[in-house]
Design goal:
Chain lengths: 475, 278, 311
């Protein structure tokens, strides 16, 4: 038999410190309250490092540093010079790509293949893309002399830690803002390595500040009156709380929230590529993706055939050690997230849907959930409506294009959608009718710095990426 | 005894009504209030609910019309408005404001088939894909119309919303509602599909909270709201993450060039990817 | 997939069937192939893969300058690829022109290495059917156990699927007990949709193997095209119960390439195809690179050019 031997990526390249402070005003400083929190490897539950927990005083110091940098260094700096700083950051991320990829995989649990081939190259590309905008903002369509907003408070999730950092920091800095960024509590390490990269790039002190901590730290940042703009990526529930908090403060707000994307497969689809797209759509990053294609809508006439192909394909997914270069599915990011996936999956069972998973051995330690496909799902089931944020696919069927569109749009979310058909006019018509900010036709989960990303309805507002991504950071 | 001076003819007065779904109903509550010397419907939350339903029903069809047709219809509305100059000035709207309002309609009418080119386009992604961003209407937009410039202010908030394919429920200037109703009458005769614009007279303080909290409203323009009052409405709007335009703290000069900002506020960017391959 | 007998009943039915097969999205197919190329094969898996790849080789010489001497030395190499290491397996087959088949048959007799011969006016296929059939019969008579035929790409591209089908059926009949590999010459078919159609057409007509290329045009086997043909044989087995083999040919020169192809086989058609009975490499220089890698794994040192034989 042809069994791939383990091909683990070495962790020797990563130089972890036992504990990390906050990155404020260009330096690592201990937290005012002296508190810290362990960040663990979700694949093994081993502690990777202790990371500082920022309180209100720390947030205040970070905002003050960002304000000083905005007024004295970054704001007055010509766009041309800001651009060069951003180009430097892009280059250093690429140069230290392997280190960042291993660290991301360790802290997040994602397969090294994805960290190496997707997260890190895209993060570098994002800085490179926005670097070029820094001295061309007058041509971006937001007036001849657009101004920065000021100090941006940015809160990012744990699913793509460094990439989400890049999506936040690159456009903000290109537009002349300074930032205080709060990474997710379970995945702070690449942000802290990025702080070192800022030092290495000789970015002026205070332009980027990283305050680690949990939701309380984020709330302190949102409440802070010295912040001119809040950018948040995360759950719709928290997004709404932030919108309420920010109401009346005058602070600008952009939100990139949850999703429950439909991936629509018509009977004339390129089936083998559709199967790949479905797998990519829901199992990429263990399904912990806001734009995951978590609802498969398949035309009834090919449903059985497609499901058979899909199951055969899913059975070939390799679940296990995230650092093994051949791993397709890594660990769930945290015990809390695993509990949520389990809870919703159990709800699917309880509501009468049928779960299927390929035979796969899950490691004993760590947070793991097998790739799972639910059939017999009705639109009323919780697993068809709620964002699971895990490797769980709900399969529904449809008979006509109108029914497919109606079912696809029957959600409070509107982040992304997929459509698979070889008929060009149908692609255009369906894409037009889908209420979603990103529509992937005959592909899924492809990303690019030049491509705007963001949702309709309760998936949030504002766009990240491309020319459109500048708007959130220009006054 | 002096001769009685009976007029040759008794003039017929207009009954001022709401404008909802292309019709002119009274408030379902039967209430009116006095404004500009007339009895004006005092819209209720149920009138608001009906107006939102009418706006929602009209939205897909209006968004589905070609941009060219939307431009034509908006231009027609400007033509109709121009024809009502006398009536509007009789209602106390300054002549200059009528002219500015007509010109503003025409300005927006011309945007109908251009905004997509300005706000969207092809994105050069690093891969074998066609990637195109297109602006699409947010949906139903609730508007608290500005006070003080009852015609120009109202036109300046309605037109940018509908030009991109949104439909509108507007709470008009409480103190000067009659020009708004007259505007509704011009819209009713300009091929604008019923329900695209819905105008409610009365007290914004009473209906705006329902508008802000309505889960089938996608956007909220608080242009005419008191900034302090607006905070609660903005907070309520967060429940379904409405896009919100906050009121300005400084007085707004509605005669100034508005730029594309108000149109862009009610447009969502949709980005479609497709592989390229032989 | 019932009634497959009927789909070949008429030109019209055949066209309807072939054009009803699922389309192929080029970008998605190539993306999948590229992703599978990132699989990392190490240690014992690599040693296994190298020996398997050697056992899957159709060691090929198809030159106008072929002579009995050259064919004899190739056959010797096929039987004992590494004279210094008796544990090194023999290749699957030697592939020659029909004129060289008698020589090769003599050399390979009793060795377990099979004799394959191209036929049907290889590589262009531009000869009358009677000539092609006579060539097949001659090769079989000379001892060929496998026939590598070419389809008429001209007929296929002209949409004359019935004619292509009939020709393959006739060749299959002429083969007798010899296995039939049908070369699609995918580089001339103008796209992946046609590769899928041609694969099905060949399988419906009785092909034992579908093979990518003659090796005589610049575009030969590629990972995506092989992946697509693996999907076709996988689906054909599911639909008909008959298993068909796949043979990428041309352009596969390094061990790394060969192992990538094995990954494609493993992850697409499945382990059921991971044997010389169902998967072959049409190659010549590949063997030496596999031997060098094999030596490296055994001795720990990189091999030089003179550590392997030139033929």
């Amino acid at each position: 038999m042809f069994e791939y031997a383990p091909a683990p990526e070495s962790t020797a390249i990563v130089d972890l410190r036992p504990s990390y402070g906050l990155f404020v005003d260009g330096r690592f400083v201990p937290p005012a309250g002296g508190r810290g929190r362990d960040t663990v490897n979700p694949a093994t539950e081993q502690v990777l490092a202790e990371v500082a927990e920022a309180d209100e005083d720390d947030v205040d110091a970070a905002v003050a540093a960002a304000r000083r940098a905005y007024e004295t260094a970054w704001g007055p700096m010509p766009g041309r010079e800001r651009a060069k700083h951003l180009f430097r950051l892009a280059r250093i991320i690429a140069e230290r790509g392997r280190e960042l990829a291993v660290l991301e995989s360790l802290d997040n649990g994602k397969p090294i293949r994805e960290a190496r081939d997707v997260d890190i190259p895209l993060a570098s590309a994002h800085f490179f893309y926005y670097a070029g905008w820094a001295d061309k903002l007058g041509y971006a369509g937001y007036g001849p002399r657009p101004q920065p907003v000021g100090v941006a408070g940015q809160i990012i999730p744990w699913n793509f830690p460094l990439l989400m950092l890049a999506w936040k920091i690159a456009p903000a800095l290109a537009c002349g803002n300074t930032v205080v960024l709060k990474p997710a509590e379970t995945t702070p390490l690449t942000a802290l390595l990025f702080a070192e990269i800022c030092q290495q790039a000789e970015l002026p002190a205070g332009v980027v500040n990283i305050v680690t901590g949990d939701g309380a730290t984020g709330a302190a940042l949102v409440r802070h009156r010295g912040v001119d703009k809040i950018a948040f990526t995360g759950s719709t529930k928290v997004g709404k709380e932030i919108a309420r908090t920010v109401a009346g403060t005058g602070a600008r707000l952009s939100l990139e929230l949850g999703g429950k994307a439909a991936n629509i497969v018509f009977d004339d689809a390129p089936i083998d590529q559709a199967v790949e797209g479905i797998v990519d759509g829901i199992f990429f990053n263990q399904g912990q993706v806001c734009c995951a294609g978590s609802r498969l809508l398949v035309q009834e006439s090919i449903a059985d055939e497609l499901l058979e192909s899909l199951k055969r394909r899913v059975a070939r997914l390799r679940v296990g050690d995230p650092l093994d270069k051949n791993t397709d599915i890594g660990a769930i990011n945290s015990a809390a997230q695993l509990a949520r996936v389990r809870e919703l999956s159990a709800a699917g069972d309880a509501e009468g849907a049928h779960a299927w998973s390929p035979p796969c051995e899950l490691p004993e330690r760590g947070f793991w959930f097998p790739p799972t496909i639910f059939t017999g799902v009705s639109p009323a089931h919780r697993i068809a409506r709620e964002e699971i944020f895990g490797p769980v696919l709900s399969v529904l069927t449809f008979r006509t294009p109108d029914e497919a569109i109606a079912k696809a749009n029957n959600t409070t979310y509107g982040l992304s959608a997929g459509v698979w058909t070889e008929k060009g006019s149908r692609i255009l018509a369906v894409a037009e009718k889908l209420r979603a900010g990103v529509v992937w036709a005959n592909t899924f989960n492809v990303f690019d710095p030049a491509s705007p990303f963001g949702g309709y309805k309760e998936s949030g507002y504002g766009r990240e990426g491309g020319r459109h991504g500048l708007e959130a950071y220009l006054a | 005894m002096p001769e009685p001076t009976a007029p040759d003819r008794v003039p017929v007065h207009k009954t001022y009504k709401l404008f909802v779904g292309g019709r002119f109903p009274r408030s379902e509550s039967g209430r009116t209030y006095q404004a500009q010397g007339a009895n004006v419907p005092l819209a209720s939350r149920k009138d608001l609910r009906d107006a939102v339903a009418a706006a929602r029903a009209a939205q897909p069809g209006w968004a589905g019309a070609t941009a060219y047709l939307r431009g034509q219809i908006l231009y027609r509305a400007a033509e109709m408005l121009e024809g009502r100059r006398g009536e509007l000035t009789a209602l106390g709207v300054r002549d200059a404001e009528v002219e500015q309002a007509v010109d503003r309609w025409i300005w927006y009418a011309g945007w109908a088939d251009k905004i997509a080119q300005v706000a969207g386009g092809a994105n050069p992604v690093a891969g074998p894909y066609l990637n195109v961003s297109t602006p699409e209407p947010t949906g139903v937009v609730g508007v608290v119309a500005p006070a003080g410039t009852p015609l120009l202010g109202l036109v300046s908030v309605i037109a940018p919303a509908i030009v991109g394919g949104n439909t509108v429920v507007a709470l008009v200037d409480e103190a000067a509602p009659l020009p708004a109703i007259t505007l509704g009458e011009t819209l009713a005769t300009s091929d604008l599909p019923p329900g695209v614009v819905n105008l409610l007279t009365g007290r914004a303080a009473e209906t705006a909270p329902w508008l802000a909290a309505h889960r089938d409203v996608n956007g909220l323009d608080l242009a005419g709201a008191d900034p302090d009052q607006a905070v609660a409405w903005e907070r309520a709007a967060a429940d379904n993450l409405k896009r919100v335009l906050r009121p300005e703290r400084a007085p707004v000069d509605w005669t100034a060039d508005p730029g594309p900002r108000r149109m862009l506020a009610w447009l969502e960017t949709k980005t479609v990817w497709h592989p390229r391959g032989l | 997939m019932t009634g497959l007998a009927e789909v070949t009943g008429s030109e019209r039915a055949l066209r309807t069937f072939l054009h009803g097969l699922p389309g192929v999205d080029r970008v998605g197919l190539e993306r999948r192939a590229a992703m599978l190329a990132t699989r990392s094969i190490k240690a014992s898996a690599k040693a296994y893969a190298i020996d398997l790849a050697i056992r899957m080789i159709d060691l090929t010489t198809l030159e106008g300058s072929d002579t009995p001497g050259r064919v004899r030395s190739l056959c010797a190499k096929a039987r004992r690829p590494d004279p210094a290491d008796p544990s090194c397996p023999a290749v699957a087959a030697v592939c020659v022109y029909p004129s060289m088949a008698p020589v090769a048959a003599g050399e390979l007799h009793g060795s377990g290495v099979r004799l394959a011969s191209v036929a049907t006016a290889f590589p262009s296929g531009q000869a009358p059917l009677a000539v092609k059939l006579a060539e097949v019969r001659a090769a079989v008579a000379a001892g060929a156990e496998e026939i590598d035929m070419v389809i008429s790409r001209g007929e296929f591209l002209a949409g004359r699927y019935g004619a292509v089908h009939e020709e393959i059926v006739a060749v299959k009949q002429a083969c007798g007990d010899a296995h039939l590999k049908v070369i699609l010459e995918t580089g001339e078919l103008g796209g992946y949709d046609n590769v899928r159609r041609a694969s099905w057409l060949a399988m419906l007509a009785g092909a034992d193997f579908v093979k990518t290329s003659t090796g005589k045009i610049p575009i030969a086997a590629t990972p995506p095209v092989t992946l697509l043909m693996l999907e076709a044989v996988r689906d054909f087995l599911a639909g008909t119960g008959r298993q068909v083999g796949v043979k990428p040919a041309g352009g596969i020169r390094s061990s790394k390439d060969a192992i990538r192809y094995l990954v494609l086989v493993n992850e697409t058609a499945g382990p059921g195809w991971l044997s010389p009975q169902w998967f072959r490499f049409g190659a010549s220089s590949l063997l030496n690179d596999l031997l060098r890698q094999r030596t490296k794994l055994t001795t720990g040192a990189y091999a030089g050019p003179d550590d392997v034989t030139v033929d």
